[in-house]
Predict the structure.
Amino acid sequence: MIDLYTAATPNGHKISIALEELELPYELHALDLAAGTQKEPWFLAINPNGRIPAIVDRAEDDFAVFESGAILIYLAEKTGRLMPAGAKARSRVLQWLMFQMGGIGPMMGQANVFYRYFPEKIPAAIDRYQGESKRLFRVLDGHLRDHEYLAGDYSIADIANWAWVRTHSWSGVDTDGLPHLQRWLALVGGRPAVQRGITLPPSRLDRTASAEKTEQFAAEARKMLETGQSREKGV
């Protein structure tokens, strides 16, 4: 049994999707990020960085793993699925996983902060991160022109990138003119395990909600961001 400590975020959904795909038994523990549960001592013993997601593998002497990319690799290697064993094929998966970890995630995350959460709108910052996110989308689109999935067969690379790219509208980035990316988004999103994984835990954000409700969610997230910054500064 695996304990999954998570929240309804792209990084959290990477792991719930992977666990559903791999059909591994797990117990979901949804953390209240607004309350700062992820900063409590018991959780810091699992993940010293105080972020979700993290897992504890009870079958392996309560082995803890944090960082979403590291968790995906651990689960793939544990089961022998979602990542090939051959050196070159494995490298292709890891390359696209690192593309998400070092590019898609950080750029879209910063776009979210400046576009949605900061009370002061800074156009140069918004343009910078939305523009870089769209550039990375074009990289994916170009690669997917000749590939059904990112690295051969469906893999943890697809899970990691999809979990973030699907949220593009929240970052204020469109997928117009990127037909191969759109095709891949629909393909991965149509998998039953993926559909289950993005509901665990349920998100309080309805991406089809009215502008008023969307702004209310953003205001709450903004408050959580400010509280987290104060907590990390020891205020």
